[in-house]
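Quick one: structure tokens for this chain, please?
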Amino acid sequence: MTDPYARTGAHAVGADPAGPGAEPSLGELISEITSDMTRLLRQEIELAKVEMKAEARKAGRAAGMLGGAGFAGYMVALLLSFAVAYGLSNVMDLGWATLLVAVVWGIAGALLFLRGRSAMREVNPKPEQTIETLKEDAAWVRHPTS
């Protein structure tokens, strides 16, 4: 029986042209390492994208809810402020009543600002998992056998 690959000079899949048990050449090893590093880098970039999309999606959802709640709260606060000011106008002049309501809202706004700023400091935009795996990859590249 004749070898079908003999005319083309090709070898059967999985056949080693140097023979069984031959060590790969330096060029083949470098090519394999380069290919592995390229694949690893692409995987790390993909992981960073996935992490950033997930965090952005969570932040967008939270911002939408906070925006809706803020508008509803604004409407309630506005109407309640008018009601309180008109209620206080039975006891004092309407101008002083509205000023008193405005001062109370100023204090509430300042407190909300301080709490919001504190909460914003807890947001972490860095892709922590990607950074950690990149550190591990760099350590592996420096010492691939350990």
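Helices lie at 26-88, 94-120, 128-142.
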